[in-house]
């Protein structure tokens, strides 16, 4: 529709119609199947408000969305199409690894391909907007939503944000992609103590440096929507934070798309203690710049009264409504309200062989080999293998936030290995995923009947245990697939105990007692504490929730079809008490290593190491790649110069290896002290067997700047350390200087 016509439409709409465009409801309001997660409440809104709703949450499937579109358009006086939005977080039907696993690929190009596919599948099912990417930087694996984030680093998350937004939106013009809605603005990942929905409090320098860059990268990549956070930042709820939404997002970054609240977060302004009642909430959120109220009665019930009593000018409603109409128009919904919705396409494009192949490749690249004593992996394929563990033949490999995917589509580890090993493979569950009924009940989704299926009776458990020991005894190698229940990680999955459950560790101890070689495969949505299993195992593969083709990818790594190349995008702690633990911390005046002091009075714990178990960027491969010396083209730079860096890599093995070369730096002295290391660039390169390769980086001097507490980026002259290596700890270093002029 031409802009002029769109303006005429807006001018012709009644106030309730315009407000309707600012309301988003989920499927149950329209008698449609709904798969959204969130607190359930009766909203107490009128049928008229429901009929005028401008967008719908998490109703999917070409048939359902078409029907609902038809129904809603007929009810609206101007027949304005609704926008269908959904949580397509890491795949729609073809499910890729959880974002923390995607972060571990360190391969934005690959991730972009995955998100393009997610957009294609979701568009065919009638969804035009995805509530992704979630790029909240997080330092604390107690937070369940660690699963949804690419990881702990601003630069890595920013590169992934660009890739994900671009992937989703690639095929928009062909009506085969999705508009991307980045979330959760802002700094949700900084919530205190990793407790869900908690508050974040931080300096502006920290916010600008470490938390905002991924959202900005998404905006720069052209994402059309932004979702606010459920949490507060420095005392102000994200949903009504005028400074964040107006000054940072709109003025500083030039965002002119649509702003949506998170689920009921406008409604929650009263609970936060930020608004006195619903009317006050509506006023504060709209005034801050929030366009759409997701799943709350507040805009629907209060905006009209606010206009009528003069507290809010209708013009403000018009502006918000205009942004929503613009988005609908950009998508061409006024001409084709069904966008790319097609039952035929759904059948044709979902989960096709090429999509599965990509999912397998991405999953294989997300796996991180944490330990490989005596090069026990890869297996030759000739060994007798005892596959044991609650995840050994488990279809639930997609994790909690793949709400549109179906675990039934997954290939289990057993299915994948059986294809290769045939009779050399034995299988038993060995033990349950959890024996703790109370904990399982507390997850909120499992009925007593479901819990009975998860937790075996004592006799069955003993039978599984005995069978496991018998199978292990007869085998050359044990593969033990363990981890956390998929409902333990994801929204509202915060926990304080990051160890594997006791029953899983007890069986491991018994298996270890047999003196067999043990490969542990850990399925989890977050870094777990693995320090109590490293000495009982020979190899450890961190497998995340690896997605539809996860079983095959795990088999590919175990059997050496690919050499593992995943690198941790989040630090693995030695113990929970170290959290939040992250590589880019400050030095302190008394660092444990290199302090002027000796003995007790240094920054450390008296009962645990200061160092992590596995550092950011860490991961093993089958090839041994040697890093040479760093070469700097010049080591004195002015602010307009570019630092040109090269390093020679040697692959002396028979393996083709994908290697992620990581570049960090430290600003030796700054007016706001800077982290011991900060990632500044990385490249994933392919090394042929027995080859050398020179990898180069060109880093503008301006990138070595930092943010002050006014949010200004400043570059201070002085000396810097540059580090290049395979992870944040094993690095070669060089120094350079940024000159005054
Ligand atoms: C609440 C979650 O915080 C958010 O990430 C999600 O997009 C919405 N629910 C909609 O399902």
Please name the defining characteristics of this protein.
26 strands, 741 residues, 8-stranded parallel beta sheet, 22 helices, binds 1-deoxynojirimycin, Immunoglobulin-like, alpha/beta, 30% helix, Rossmann fold, 6-stranded mixed beta sheet, 18% strand
Structure description:
- Among the domains are: 351-569, Glycoside hydrolase family 3 C-terminal domain (Rossmann fold), CATH 3.40.50; 625-738, Sandwich (Immunoglobulin-like), CATH 2.60.40.10.
- Helix content is 30%, strand content 18%.
- The chain is built from 22 helices and 26 strands.
- By secondary structure, the protein is of the alpha/beta class.
- It starts with a helix and ends with a strand.
- It has an 8-stranded parallel sheet with strand order 9-6-5-4-3-2-1-10. A 6-stranded mixed sheet has the order 11-16-15-14-12-13, sandwiched between helices. The chain has a 5-stranded mixed sheet with strand order 18-26-25-20-21.
- The site of 1-deoxynojirimycin has 12 residues, from loops.
């Amino acid at each position: 529709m031409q802009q002029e016509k769109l303006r005429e439409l807006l001018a012709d709409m009644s106030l309730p119609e315009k407000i309707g465009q600012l309301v988003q409801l989920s499927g149950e309001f329209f008698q449609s199947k709904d798969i959204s997660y969130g607190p359930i409440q009766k909203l107490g809104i009128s049928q008229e408000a429901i009929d005028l709703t401008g967008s719908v949450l998490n109703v999917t499937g070409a048939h359902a969305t078409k029907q609902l579109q038809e129904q809603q358009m007929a009810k609206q006086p101007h027949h304005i199409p609704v926008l269908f939005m959904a949580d397509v977080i890491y795949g729609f039907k073809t499910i890729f690894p959880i974002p923390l696993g995607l972060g571990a690929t360190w391969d934005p190009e690959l991730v972009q391909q995955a998100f393009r596919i997610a957009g294609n599948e979701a568009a065919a099912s009638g969804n035009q907007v995805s509530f992704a990417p979630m790029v909240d930087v997080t330092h604390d694996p107690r937070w369940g939503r660690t699963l949804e984030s690419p990881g702990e680093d601003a630069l890595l998350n920013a590169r992934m944000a660009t890739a994900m937004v671009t992937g989703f939106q690639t095929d928009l013009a062909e009506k085969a992609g999705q508009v991307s809605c980045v979330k959760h603005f802002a700094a949700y990942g900084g919530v205190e103590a990793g407790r869900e929905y908690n508050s974040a409090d931080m300096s502006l320098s920290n916010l600008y440096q470490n938390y905002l860059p991924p959202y900005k990268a998404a905006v720069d990549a052209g994402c059309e929507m932004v979702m606010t956070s459920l949490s507060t930042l420095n005392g102000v709820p994200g949903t009504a934070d005028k400074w964040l939404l107006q000054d940072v997002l709109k003025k500083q970054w030039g965002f002119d798309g649509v702003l949506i609240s998170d689920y009921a977060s406008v409604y929650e302004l009263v609970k936060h203690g930020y608004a006195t009642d619903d009317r006050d909430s509506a006023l504060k959120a709209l005034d801050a710049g929030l366009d759409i109220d997701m799943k709350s009665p507040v805009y629907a019930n209060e905006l009209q009264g606010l206009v009528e009593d003069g507290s809010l000018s209708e013009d403000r409603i018009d502006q918000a409504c205009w942004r929503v109409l613009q988005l609908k128009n950009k998508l061409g919904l006024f001409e084709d309200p069904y966008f790319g919705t097609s039952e035929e396409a759904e059948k044709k494009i979902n989960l096709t062989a090429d999509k599965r192949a990509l999912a397998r490749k991405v999953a294989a690249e997300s796996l991180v080999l944490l330990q490989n004593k005596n090069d026990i992996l890869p297996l030759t394929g000739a060994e007798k293998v005892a596959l044991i563990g609650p995840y050994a033949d488990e279809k639930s490999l997609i994790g909690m936030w793949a709400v549109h995917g179906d675990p039934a589509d997954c290939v289990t580890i057993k299915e994948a290995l059986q294809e290769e090993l045939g009779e050399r493979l034995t299988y038993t569950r060995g033990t349950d995923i959890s024996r703790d009924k109370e904990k399982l009940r507390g997850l909120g989704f499992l009925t007593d009947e479901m819990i009975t299926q998860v937790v075996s009776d004592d006799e069955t458990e003993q039978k599984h245990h005995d069978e496991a020991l018998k199978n292990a005894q007869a085998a050359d190698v044990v593969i033990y697939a363990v981890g956390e229940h998929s409902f333990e990680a994801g929204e509202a999955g915060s926990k304080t105990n990051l160890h594997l459950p006791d029953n899983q560790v007890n069986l491991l101890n018994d298996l270890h007692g047999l003196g067999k070689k043990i490969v542990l495969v850990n399925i989890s949505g977050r870094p777990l504490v693995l320090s109590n299993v490293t000495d009982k195992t020979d190899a450890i593969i961190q497998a995340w929730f690896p997605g539809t083709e996860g079983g095959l990818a795990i088999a590919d790594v175990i059997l050496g079809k690919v050499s593992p190349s995943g690198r941790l995008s989040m630090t693995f702690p030695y113990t929970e008490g170290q959290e939040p633990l992250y590589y880019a911390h400050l030095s302190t005046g008394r660092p444990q290593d290199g302090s002027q002091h000796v003995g007790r009075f240094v920054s450390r714990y008296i009962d645990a190491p200061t160092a992590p178990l596995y550092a950011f960027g860490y991961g093993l491969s089958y090839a041994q790649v040697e890093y040479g010396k760093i070469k700097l083209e010049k080591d004195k730079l002015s602010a307009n110069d570019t630092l040109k860096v090269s390093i020679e890599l040697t692959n002396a093995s028979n393996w083709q290896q994908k290697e992620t070369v990581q570049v960090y730096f430290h600003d030796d002295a700054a007016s706001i002290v800077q982290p011991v290391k900060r990632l500044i660039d990385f490249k994933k390169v392919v090394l042929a067997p027995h080859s050398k390769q020179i990898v180069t980086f060109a880093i503008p001097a301006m990138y070595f700047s930092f943010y002050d507490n006014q949010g200004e980026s400043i570059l201070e002259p002085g000396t810097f350390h540059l580090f290049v290596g395979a992870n944040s700890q094993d690095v070669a270093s060089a120094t350079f200087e940024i000159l005054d002029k």
